[in-house]
Design brief:
Largest interface: A-B, 114 and 114 residues
Oligomer: homodimer
Strand order of the largest sheet of chain A: 7-11-12-17-16-15-14-13
Number of strands of chain A: 17
Number of helices of chain A: 16
Distance between the termini of chain A: 41 Å
Shape of chain A: elongated
Strand content of chain A: 15-25%
Largest sheet of chain A: 8 strands, mixed
Helix content of chain A: 25-40%
Amino acid sequence: MVITETQPPMEGDAATSKKAAKKAAKAVEKQQKKAEHKGSTTQNEAAEVDVAEGKYGVLKMIQSSGEHRDRVYVDVKDLGVSLEGKDVWVRARLQYSRAIGRQCFAVLRQTSSTVQLLIRVNEQVSKQMVKFIGNVAKESIVDILATVVKTSSPVESCTVKLVELIGLQVWVVSSAKSKLPLQIEDAARPETDDDPEALKIRVLQETRLDNRVLDLRTPANQAIFRLEAGVCKLFRDILTKKGFVEIHTPKIISAASEGGANVFTVSYFKSSAYLAQSPQLYKQMAIAADFDKVFTVGAVFRAEDSNTHRHLTEFVGLDLEMSFKYHYHEVLDTIGQTFTDMFRGLQDHYAAEIATVGQQFKVEPFKFLDPPLRLEFPQAISMLKEAGVNVGEEDDLSTPDEKLLGRLVRAKYDTDFYMLDKYPLAVRPFYTMPDPNNPKASNSYDMFMRGEEILSGAQRIHDPDFLTERAKHHGIDISKIAAYIESFRLGCPPHAGGGIGMERVVMLYLGLDNIRKTSMFPRDPKRITP
Amino acid sequence: MVITETQPPMEGDAATSKKAAKKAAKAVEKQQKKAEHKGSTTQNEAAEVDVAEGKYGVLKMIQSSGEHRDRVYVDVKDLGVSLEGKDVWVRARLQYSRAIGRQCFAVLRQTSSTVQLLIRVNEQVSKQMVKFIGNVAKESIVDILATVVKTSSPVESCTVKLVELIGLQVWVVSSAKSKLPLQIEDAARPETDDDPEALKIRVLQETRLDNRVLDLRTPANQAIFRLEAGVCKLFRDILTKKGFVEIHTPKIISAASEGGANVFTVSYFKSSAYLAQSPQLYKQMAIAADFDKVFTVGAVFRAEDSNTHRHLTEFVGLDLEMSFKYHYHEVLDTIGQTFTDMFRGLQDHYAAEIATVGQQFKVEPFKFLDPPLRLEFPQAISMLKEAGVNVGEEDDLSTPDEKLLGRLVRAKYDTDFYMLDKYPLAVRPFYTMPDPNNPKASNSYDMFMRGEEILSGAQRIHDPDFLTERAKHHGIDISKIAAYIESFRLGCPPHAGGGIGMERVVMLYLGLDNIRKTSMFPRDPKRITP
């Protein structure tokens, strides 16, 4: 039984661990049963000398028994004609393998890259070795020593097209179980319906999320979350360059920030507390504390029982707040420019990720203007009225109206991003600064991507007496917000800001249909696992 | 009453707001009372023509009525001899003002920078104007038009030493209340006791935290939180450069991550959930999902009733996890180098902030080695034993032992940072990979700054069967961690990582004595406000 005797090629100790041996034995047993069933010659083969002995098998669990830094591994994405004829080590997932007769075709995958692997029986490679690789469970991690060879014609099914690997050694580093709850090829199948003959097998959202570790391995998901990291990086880098200071605000708070609705309660030692619905109060305190321009990236919590494509109970807020000299448009322009710079950064540095996502999902390229478009609320109302929608001048926009408006703006101005300024005072929170020139308007704004809101913001009232007046006007119990009001009695510059939903930005930039696609481990009223 | 008639110099509308008028009237009333009390000639002065009319007063609340982008403001830190003779606008805090006879001395402050302001009665400046500025409450925000002049000798009490400002206009943008809960000069007073004559007035930690908005305005606090932003930036930039992907992990979880002790409970719709004590499980799932190297920066929660100088119930975790090929030292080296690069980055880019903190607190420069020092646990035990401490080979280190060890290491190796590898298996969690060569040791490590632990980490067990075995050995109910174990049945590379307490890193880098100094709005068992 050669396989059970196989030595791990690198781990220092001589004996294969009991577990590895047991696993390998099982694998072989399986092979034998299969062979017997087919009436093949396995019994005879097992008796034969295995020319590939010591070149394949299940590696003992890597426990750091030796450093082995001399062994250089090549990344799948770096495999190319420049390596032709070279023998290379690759550690990757076995996406697929199928032994037919004297050879085995396989595909290795690493993040979003794939390469074809071929193992043929020859003087160094035994039939047993070919069968072994054919029986390794999909999604197992393998170490492969292989020769890089040019392909006669491009391999269309892999991302590495001009070369393939001819296997010399095959070692299983970590086995996947043989029955996976979903197949990566199903989860990764393009959602286009151009081809009427195309396989229609899809994996349901719930199945994906229940098995998120597998689902995240699709090329599109690998790309989505790398782009998401890019959104955060760009947001921070652009603002840091503009002189903003990153701060961290507490998530556990003593009083519900916006009146008590939609807030999660936490038991806090012998008392109770709440989870912050936004860092706004703390951003404002940082402004009153002379930090001038601040941003923060962190979890925000909404106990809303909204089961829609765009609501989460926990999401990542990209928040910013900035003091200004005379007009909140200084802030509005800064935020608008930040978005433009971010969109350009994504276009320039994440083109590969955008293309990978596009292979699975229909993604219309995201359009934006520089400088970005700024409309005023009455203009939006006019556009909607012209389109036959009955909307009030002082009403907030409904979600369908926002979507329609997005299409109208796109048709008229050719942009998927715009800022809508001067919301009616009546539909905004008490701390919003009223418009000095129009008693029905306010110094507040929303921003939209593909017709969906991704930022809400305003000039905040920085005068404690006026803030008190406005709170009373809104029927708010002043005693409950005394600390908030008090913080403006220490001298505070005029300021404005806004909060951005990170997952929404990624979803809408890529044109995806559900926010659960852009939250690695999404939380909604019905899901807090995995 | 000239002041009540004063026009704001920039806001568009002609009439001073009622509120501003009322305030200004009060200020004047106060002046008059004071004058009457002293038996001065205010009554006559008020009847006089005010040559400074329209050059000072309380500005109407800035409500964005005009953009006024033509007015250029100069930052205090940029005031220097190159601007000599120029008239400049500055918006800053009035840190101090005192009118004596025909002139008023004042200090303007902006973040950590200060400049002297002098206002003298002359053809353009009236006695009334001098009195006005003398009566503006400390910490109010003012707009000043002033001429930059060279000083005959350096102004030692300000950060801008070579020039001062001669005031031409003075406008109050936002008034502070006249009785502040603490004085910035007290909160900023150096904590050195070299000078026996020095004023000993200190502000208590609790008073500071109760009035954090004021406390944060001290130059040291302005510098501490800018350096903290730098720590996060460096952590992310260094790891991004090494190929790490930033991820976001949920804070609301369905099961207590480490057994249920010290975890906060959240009411979640009709059920309940917990606040994550660490992102470890999610980092590991990201590794199993092929993200290869990941980091995350975010809130972590510990329901520990520990009221010490170094414990918070909510802090910012700098977490990372990385797959490796053969030995967890690949990861250990990466983390160590990340710290070295971070320390160097702070030294290079935050020298001004470090110096500012040093003016208030005794800060011994932080020492580190490149490459960083790595010791093994038995070496630490030997050093402690040599120093006369009775410690067991398989016991964890106590906090006092860790501190002593820090001093011993500093004396012997001249470094404030080191890594301690190979902790006893018995003192680490069940998921820690045992050392393959020593049954009593494990592939785990802590890292220390100035003798205090700032990172804990390990190679994690990636084999589901072995993980089950180890969990059973620890007496853990397997059914409760089934999902965790299951995630390794889908194929997972060997991996290791660690979690860093951000506030601890900043506290210890700067040599501060309390973690509440490095958390902007700290949370402990007794404090969840402001």
